[in-house]
Specification:
With 424 residues, the chain is mainly β. It has 3 domains: 40-126, Immunoglobulins (Immunoglobulin-like); 140-225, Sandwich (Immunoglobulin-like), CATH 2.60.40; 236-423, Galactose-binding domain-like (Jelly Rolls, Sandwich). It is built from 3 helices and 31 strands. Residues 27-35 have low confidence and may be disordered.
Length: 424
């Protein structure tokens, strides 16, 4: 006779229900943990911004692990928040306008992280105006700057608050691309940013004209930046010994390990030296210059290569320069021409050199080292009218040195120890 054990079935059913109940509680617990893990605090724990009647501006640092927002209880025109949202750690600035009312005023700010409301709030409280009289005479001023901002050579990016009783505008009196103010116009109290570039030149000044309700103000905003010493004859503005290159061998005819510029590291390329892609037929469409330990080889069989300097960014205004360098010919069987020139402003005093200096045997280390030290290894030329945009170049002969197009199919030259000096 078949019988059913109802007691056993009921026990099994209860066990299953208990399992799913525990599983549900587990996931709810995980959810609660995730919600608890989302947080937002303000550095140093401020909960209130107390502002005098004349207004003020203050920046607060957010510490958070999610996407956060700052939201006021209601929108009103007497305060501004910049910025209102961010991700992770960040900052926001509260700017409070002048209170011309006899009543104090307040506002509460709320925070959310990843869409979830946080328990902490922040209050803005401003005292009442001192009298019931009408607003003061119209004004336009910048907190922290009277009429002049002094800046060091390194430059700055500074945040300020422009205070105004109406519509304002800032206009640059003369062209000065080294300084910017943003924004350049607005209404009422507004955060502004003043950015001044690094100065490698002598001291400089820029004047910004101020307008309030279209009326020009008496005193301009003066940006003065300190400069470096004025460059004079004999000042070295650039030098390069290429000691950061460590490829291949010092022995001239040992070519194993020498490395084309296309394979240099990012740090080496960041030094600013470049070369022209050789597009001559059969040239492989690559630049034909090679790194050795502390010097560079220009050119290869049938094709020349050039070495282009970084921009001479340390030049103040327009200068005449003496370019001095060392050069050694690869071997006695090579052609010996080195041509030179400039990219950008300036003209060269000579356009070519015959490089006759070479090692007595280019397979001997001592002979190769001696070739660099010989008096005839040093060459120089002048660039007239150079600026911070000027670059100079050195080319081993010509880009096309194939038979019939050049006196020899090889015109390889080693280059090292470049020095650029100011002259009259």
């Amino acid at each position: 006779m078949n019988t059913t054990n109802y007691s056993t079935s009921a026990t099994l059913l209860k066990a299953i229900l208990a399992f799913f109940l525990l599983l549900t509680l587990f996931f709810l617990s995980c959810k609660e943990d995730n919600e608890l893990n989302s947080f937002l605090t303000l550095k140093d724990g401020p909960s209130k911004m107390e502002v005098v009647a004349n207004g003020s501006s203050e920046t607060f640092t957010v510490q958070s692990n999610g996407n956060w927002k700052v939201e006021p209880l209601r929108k009103e025109s007497w305060f501004k928040i910049d910025v209102t949202e961010g991700s992770g750690d960040g900052k926001f600035t509260i700017t409070v306008a002048k209170n011309t009312d006899q009543k104090a005023r307040a506002m509460t700010l709320f925070f959310t992280v990843d869409g979830r409301l946080q328990s902490n709030v922040f209050k803005i409280e401003q005292t009442a105006g001192t009298t019931g009289e009408q607003q003061d005479q119209p004004y336009l001023k910048i907190d922290g700057i009277s009429t002049k901002l002094d800046v060091l050579e390194a430059g700055i990016t500074g945040n300020y608050v422009l205070r105004s009783t109406g519509k304002w505008k800032i206009a640059l009196e003369e062209e000065a691309n080294w300084v910017t103010v943003s924004p350049m116009e607005g209404i009422g109290d507004t955060p502004i940013t003043v950015s001044v570039n690094k100065n490698t030149d002598i001291e400089r000044t820029a004047n910004f004209l101020l307008f309030l309700n279209e009326v020009p103000q008496t005193n301009p905003l003066i940006i003065y930046q300190k400069g470096v010493k004025a460059q004079v004859e004999g000042d070295v503005i650039f030098s390069e010994d290429f000691n950061w290159l460590t490829y291949g061998s010092e022995i001239f005819n040992a070519t194993s390990g020498e490395t084309r510029i296309a394979s240099w590291t990012a740090a080496e390329l960041a030094k600013g030296w470049t070369s022209t892609i050789n597009s001559t037929e059969g040239g492989g469409n690559y630049a034909s210059i090679y790194a050795r330990p502390g010097f560079i080889k220009l050119g290869r069989t049938n094709y020349g290569g050039d070495l282009i300097s970084p921009k001479l960014s340390n030049i103040q205004r327009t200068k005449n320069l003496l370019i001095t360098f060392k050069a050694v010919r690869y071997a006695s069987g090579d052609h010996n021409l080195l041509t030179v020139g400039v990219k950008g402003p300036g003209t060269v005093s000579v356009s070519q050199f015959n490089i006759n200096n070479l090692a007595t045997t280019n397979s001997n280390l001592d002979a190769c080292r001696a070739a660099w030290q010989a008096p005839e290894a040093t060459y120089s030329f002048v660039i007239k009218g150079a600026t911070a945009e000027t670059q100079f170049w050195l080319l081993s002969g010509a880009f096309d040195q194939r038979s019939g197009n050049w006196p020899a199919t090889v015109n390889r030259i080693f280059v090292d120890d470049v020095v650029v000096t100011v002259i009259k």
